[in-house]
UniProtKB/TrEMBL annotation:
Positions of the Mop domain: 300-373
Gene source species: Oleiphilus messinensis
Name of the protein in its database record: Molybdate ABC transporter ATPase
PANTHER family named in the record: ABC TRANSPORTER I FAMILY MEMBER 10 (PTHR43514), MOLYBDENUM IMPORT ATP-BINDING PROTEIN MODC 2 (PTHR43514:SF10)
Sequence ranges assigned to domain ABC transporter in this UniProt record: 5-241
Length: 373
C-alpha cells in the first residue's frame, strides 16, 4: 500500500482558540498490504488527519492512495469517501444508540458493496465474541463490548482496508487487556490490512507488524516493527519505552524453574513460563533499561540471559546523562553474527568507564524479557 499526502491547515482553521501554530502534513508511506501498521506519534502529530486523508474525508493539496492494486486517489482521480472500501473504527464507538447491536450490524450488511455472506457473518460474530449481546441496545453494553460490535460492523462492510483510530482510548486498562486478544484474532484470522492509530507503546508492541512514526506532520521512521525499534537514533523520545520487539518460538520448558526458552533465530532467551506449548509463535519485548553490558562473563551473575554481542551503534539518549547502545547478538555455539539486535540504555558514565566503541565484543545481560503475545 502506498499513501502520499501534502496538506496544510492555516492558523484560522485551528480548532483550539489561541493555538496559533499552523499544521502541515507531509507524508510518504509505503507499507505491505497485510498485517497491522501502527501509526504512532504524540498528540497533535497528525495521526487522525492521516487516516482521514486515506478515508477521503480531507482534501489534501496533494494526495495519492493505493490500497493493494486499487488506486483511490492520484493526480486524475479522487474517489469520494463512500466509494473507498474502508471500515473505520473510532475512539468512541459510533453505534446508532436507538438500534440493537444486531440492527447496527444489519445496517452495515445493507451498505456493503459485496453480497451478504452468512458464513462470514457468523464467523465474525464469533471472532469478536458478541453472540450473547446482539439483542442489546448500545447503552446496555460495556465499553469493550460496544467497541467489539463497532469493529464487527466495520468488518461487515467487507472493506479492503480497516482504519482504527485509537479504538482502545476510551477504555480503562482492564478493558483494554480484554479487547486486545480480539484484535489479535482479527489479525490472525482475517486477511485484511489494518491502519491502527495509537500513542500507546504497549499496543504497538502487541499488535504492530509495521510502524510509522509521525512527528509534527512528518514521517520520521517507518518499516518493520523489529527493525524500527532496534534503531537508536530515532528523533522521537521513547523514554523508558525504548527497546526492541522480537518474534520467536517457544522451544523449551523448564517446569522446575517455571521458565521457558524462546528462540529468536539462533538466539535463545529465557523468560517466565507462560504455559504456551512448544512451537507457539510469541512476541517478546526487551526494554533498553533491562539490558546491561559486561566485558566478560567470568563472574557468576543472577542475570538469566547473557549473550555475546557486538556493539553496532552508540547514541546519546534524549536524557543526555544516558546513552543508547545497539547490540547485535551472536549465537553461543559458533559465535557467528546473527541479525537479532537489542538496545541497552546505560549511563553515559558507565559507557565511558567501559570505553565502549563500535565493533567491541561484549556480553549483553538481559535482566528481563516480557512476553507480549
Ligand atoms: N478539524 C480541524 N480543523 C483544523 N485543525 C485541526 C482539525 N483537527 C485537528 N486539527 C489540527 O491538526 C493537527 C493534527 O491533528 P490530529 O488530530 O491529526 O493529530 P493526532 O496525532 O491524531 O492527535 P491526537 O493523538 O491528540 O488525536 C493538530 O495541530 C490539530 O490541532
Amino acid at each position: 500500500m502506498h499513501f502520499r499526502f501534502r496538506l496544510e491547515r492555516s492558523q484560522n482553521q485551528k480548532p483550539v482558540p489561541g493555538d496559533d501554530r499552523g499544521f502541515a502534513l507531509d507524508a510518504d508511506i509505503t507499507v505491505p498490504g497485510r498485517g497491522v501498521t501502527v501509526i504512532f506519534g504524540a498528540s497533535g502529530s497528525g495521526k487522525t488527519t492521516l487516516l482521514r486523508c486515506v478515508a477521503g474525508l480531507e482534501q489534501p493539496k496533494f494526495g495519492y492512495v493505493r490500497v493493494l492494486e486499487h488506486i483511490w486517489q492520484d493526480d486524475n482521480v479522487s474517489l469520494p469517501a463512500h466509494k473507498r472500501a474502508i471500515g473505520y473504527v473510532f475512539q468512541e464507538s459510533s453505534l446508532f444508540p436507538f438500534m440493537s447491536a444486531k440492527a447496527n450490524l444489519n445496517y452495515a450488511i445493507k451498505r456493503a458493496d459485496a453480497p451478504f455472506n452468512p458464513e462470514q457473518y457468523e464467523h465474525l460474530i464469533d471472532v469478536m465474541g458478541i453472540r450473547g449481546v446482539l439483542d442489546r441496545l448500545p447503552a446496555r453494553l460495556s465499553g469493550g463490548e460496544r467497541q467489539r460490535v463497532a469493529i464487527c460492523r466495520a468488518l461487515l462492510l467487507q472493506p479492503k482496508l480497516l482504519l482504527m483510530d485509537e479504538p482502545l482510548a476510551s477504555l480503562d486498562t482492564a478493558r483494554k487487556q480484554d479487547i486486545l486478544p480480539y484484535l489479535e484474532r482479527i489479525k490472525s484470522e482475517l486477511n485484511i490490512p489494518i491502519l491502527y492509530v495509537s500513542h500507546a507503546l504497549d499496543e504497538v508492541a502487541r499488535l504492530a507488524d509495521h510502524v510509522v512514526f509521525l512527528d509534527n506532520g512528518s514521517v520520521i521512521a517507518q518499516g518493520d516493527v523489529t527493525d524500527v525499534f532496534s534503531r537508536i537514533k530515532l528523533p522521537m523520545n521513547l523514554g523508558e519505552g525504548a527497546g526492541v520487539i522480537l518474534q520467536g518460538i517457544v522451544i523449551e520448558h523448564a517446569p522446575e524453574w517455571e521458565l521457558m526458552c524462546v528462540a529468536i533465530g539462533s538466539i535463545k532467551l529465557w523468560l517466565k513460563d507462560s504455559g504456551d506449548p512448544l512451537q507457539t509463535k510469541v512476541r517478546v519485548r526487551v526494554l533498553a533499561r533491562d539490558v546491561s553490558i559486561a566485558m566478560g562473563c567470568e563472574t557468576k551473575s543472577s542475570i538469566l540471559n547473557r549473550i555475546p554481542a557486538e556493539v553496532t551503534d552508540i547514541a546519546v539518549d534524549h536524557d543526555s546523562s544516558m546513552v543508547l547502545i545497539q547490540l547485535r547478538l551472536t549465537t553461543r555455539d559458533d559465535q557467528s553474527f546473527d541479525s537479532t539486535y537489542v538496545v541497552s540504555r546505560v549511563t553515559r558514565r558507565s559507557a565511558h568507564h567501559l570505553d565502549l566503541k563500535k565493533g567491541d565484543c561484549v556480553w549483553a545481560q538481559v535482566k528481563s524479557v516480557a512476553l507480549v503475545h
